[in-house]
């Protein structure tokens, strides 16, 4: 009798696994997009705080609502809509089912950094990569190696990190990073870490990768609020951020030539934001210095602690809070990244739309 019970149990497990794989494959083939899913790694440019454990306890004077309280206003979400994809489920919200994994996962967390700083409660790039590779292993278990490889190669991986590393670096009074590195060494280390991340994703079958650069932090309300004598953007901040972006793009060009079948694009968020700051009248923008939601000089001394603090018309602002763009600016960024309109060649060497349609 015991043996018979064991056989029945094994049959049930086998049936469950086969049924799960069958349902997974049906879902896989039902998606008509040439990109099957989106997997996202990043900071507040991809997450509003809901994917950061205990975020409301550790945000301090930063923004409790860094992107208007809704991930739907962020660039990767807007791109997912253009690809007819369901938006990637936040890692800490999904329940680990194959259905959730196949619709994409957002591993990003507000205030995440490229480098690991042990005293902080925010997730680093390496932590997000570990979650990504564990997810890929689960896909391989459910789909089998062949189907999983095809699925991953047909998925898009979106990376957007580094902003908070530079924020830590320039806030030297509270940072353990800036005394250790010169500016050039710091950018070199960050670029190497991002390059290694792309290589590791490629080694795990990722072939379509979007890597977003860092926006001009020297023009952000928080940086402007820190110096009462400054007029315009902080050039020393922007110069270092620009150097990072240039080095990262050069590495991506080299990786495209080196890695067979890879389609990696760099999206120049810096140049796009500077266009909005320098020529606001062309984009319906009226305020390029102040945050829509915040307190203090330039609304940059304290972040967005309640959406009730927000301005009445965020679409007329470049900045939503201390460092993050408004939903209107994110929409312009997404449109430009997708098709090159209104800003051409923001994403290089090809647009996201061309990346989606490319074969692997």
TrEMBL record:
InterPro entries: GDSL, GDSL_Est/Lipase, SGNH_hydro_sf. The keyword Transcription regulation does not apply. Residues 1-24 form the signal peptide. One of its GO terms (molecular function) is hydrolase activity, acting on ester bonds. Keywords: Hydrolase, Lipid degradation, Lipid metabolism, Signal. One of its GO terms (biological process) is lipid catabolic process. It comes from the Eukaryota. Pfam families: Lipase_GDSL. The keyword Transmembrane helix does not apply. Belongs to the 'GDSL' lipolytic enzyme family. This is GDSL esterase lipase 7-like.
């Amino acid at each position: 009798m015991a043996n018979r019970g064991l056989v029945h149990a094994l049959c049930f497990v086998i049936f469950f696994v086969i049924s799960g794989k069958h349902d997974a494959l049906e879902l896989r083939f039902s998606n008509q997009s040439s990109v099957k899913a989106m997997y996202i790694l990043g900071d507040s440019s991809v997450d509003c705080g809901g994917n950061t454990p205990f975020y409301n306890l550790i945000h301090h004077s930063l923004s409790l609502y860094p992107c208007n309280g809704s991930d739907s206003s962020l660039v990767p979400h807007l791109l997912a809509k253009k690809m007819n994809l369901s938006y990637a489920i936040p890692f800490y919200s999904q329940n680990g089912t194959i259905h959730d994994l196949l619709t994409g996962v957002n591993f990003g967390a507000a205030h995440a950094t490229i480098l690991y700083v042990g005293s902080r409660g925010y997730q680093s790039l390496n932590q997000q990569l570990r979650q990504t590779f564990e997810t890929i292993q689960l896909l391989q278990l459910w789909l089998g190696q062949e189907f999983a490889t095809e699925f991953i190669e047909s998925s898009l991986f979106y990376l957007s990190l580094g902003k908070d590393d530079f924020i830590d670096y320039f806030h030297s009074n509270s940072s353990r990073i800036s005394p250790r590195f010169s500016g050039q060494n710091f950018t070199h280390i960050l670029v190497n870490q991002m390059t290694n991340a792309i290589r590791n994703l490629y080694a795990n079958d990722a072939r379509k990768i979007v890597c977003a650069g860092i926006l001009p932090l020297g023009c952000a309300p928080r940086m402007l609020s820190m110096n009462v004598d400054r007029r315009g953007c902080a050039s020393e901040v922007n110069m270092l951020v620009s150097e990072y972006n240039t080095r990262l793009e050069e590495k991506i060009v080299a990786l495209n030539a080196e890695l067979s079948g890879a389609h990696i694009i760099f999206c120049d968020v810096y140049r796009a934001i500077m266009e909005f700051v320098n020529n606001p009248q062309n984009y319906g923008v009226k305020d390029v210095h102040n945050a829509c939601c915040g307190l203090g000089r330039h609304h940059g001394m304290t972040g967005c602690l309640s959406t009730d603090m927000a301005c009445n018309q965020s679409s007329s602002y470049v900045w939503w809070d201390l460092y993050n763009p408004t939903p209107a600016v994110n929409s312009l960024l997404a449109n430009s990244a997708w098709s090159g309109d209104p800003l051409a060649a923001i994403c290089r060497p090809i647009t996201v739309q061309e990346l989606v349609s490319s074969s692997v």
